[in-house]
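Quarterly update from the structural biology core.
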Amino acid sequence: MATIISKKADQDGKVIPPTTRDTNVVEDTVPGEQGIVWEKRPLPTYDALVCGAGGFVGGHLVNMLSRKGLRVLAVDIKPLGDWLQVNTDGLVRSIHSIDLRLKDKCDYLLELAKPEIIYNLVDTLSNDELNETMNRVLVNTHLIQGFLTKYAPAKYILAGGESSERILAEEMAIEFGYKLSPDMDIHITRLHNIYGPQSNILNIGELIPAGYECSYCYIDDAISALWLLTQSKGINIVEIGSGRTYNGQEVKGIIDKIAEQEIEKVFSLYSPSATSVDEDETKAKIGWRPSTPIGEGLAKTHEWISKEEHVDI
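Predicted structure, tokenized:
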């Protein structure tokens, strides 16, 4: 799948093809682009910069922002072929293989995009906890430094799972982000057991917990929460997930009924963790609760896995 470079308009509203070419950008043409006229806005160049766009949540977030008419710069360290989704909408430009642990890359993106909103969903995987911590802190630090020296967005949203290294990055975002740009809205969101289609899950059995209870939040609900959070003002820390927990036997029973056969637990990096959230607190902060029943969400996930022919079930 090829990505499409976003088109800009001149003062007469005519489409101007991009004049610069990045070697790490895959381009394609827009069928019938002669009739396309984008809203004329000198700044920002892009409405949103999504870091970690090649991941599960990042891919769905880019799609949602595009559907709402936002111009999106989608970036990820992974090669384009490793992205879980690649949005080909004319409002989206995708840059792959860009390492945001390097400060000059962060500065480049801030100058290129001049975004109103930055979503930082960068999530590195490492067998070394210290190394993983430093990687996440580096990306967060470089972006925040760039707010002062390059371009400060109106909103900075840091999203990810709850962990010690993520909490360190959160504290830095709030403390230094606010000091560098007091007028910027800073939103921290902790995502709990988000699941659904276009994910890393290769077998529905990976979603069965082992020996503990956990909650589940369908991807569409999580993306809706991120959008509501985007509309919020000030500084917020919000937990995105469900307050309802399930044990392994309960989840297995639901999945067995959906698959119409016995499904065994499969252990993987993406299996759900033992966690739940206070839905009342999240509702009070951003007016959101998850709305997709677990049976419905698992059925949609199972259908996607079956169509993708990831496993023979």
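The chain is about 35% helix and 15% strand.
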